[in-house]
């Protein structure tokens, strides 16, 4: 499986939405996932969120 396989693409999209607090998953949490959780469980996503400038404002300020 490559990084662009449908399974990985769907997982990345889900984590992105959960981090930003988008209610695209009816089984998802009520609150956005913290960046620390994303870093621990899917470090590639944390790196990509930072690289693409998609961190939440509070995480941009705290991550320097």
Q: Beta-sheet strand percentage? A: under 5%
Count every helix, treating DSSP H or I runs of 4 or more residues as helices: 4
Please give the share of residues in helix.
Answer: 55-70%
> Can you summarize the main beta sheet?
none
Task: Tell how many strands the DSSP assignment holds.
Answer: 0
The first-to-last residue Cα distance is 34 Å
The averaged pLDDT comes out at 88
Give the CA-based shape. globular
- Reading the helices and strands in chain order gives HHHH
Low-confidence stretches: none
> What's the Cα radius of gyration?
12 Å
Structural class: mainly alpha
Seen as an oligomer or otherwise, the chain set is: single chain
Quick tags:
4 helices, globular, mainly alpha, single chain, 64 residues
Q: Helices, strands, pairings?
A:
Layout: H1 6-20, H2 35-41, H3 43-51, H4 57-63
Can you describe this structure?
The longest helix has 15 residues, at 6-20. It is globular and about 35 Å long. 59% of the residues lie in helices and 0% in strands. The protein has helices spanning 6-20, 35-41, 43-51, 57-63. The protein is mainly α.
């Amino acid at each position: 499986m490559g990084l662009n396989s449908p399974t990985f693409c769907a997982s990345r999209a889900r984590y992105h939405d959960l981090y930003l607090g988008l209610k695209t998953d009816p089984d998802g949490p009520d609150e956005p996932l913290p960046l620390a959780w994303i870093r621990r469980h899917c470090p590639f996503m944390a790196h990509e969120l930072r690289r693409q400038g998609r961190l939440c404002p509070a995480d941009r300020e705290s991550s320097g």
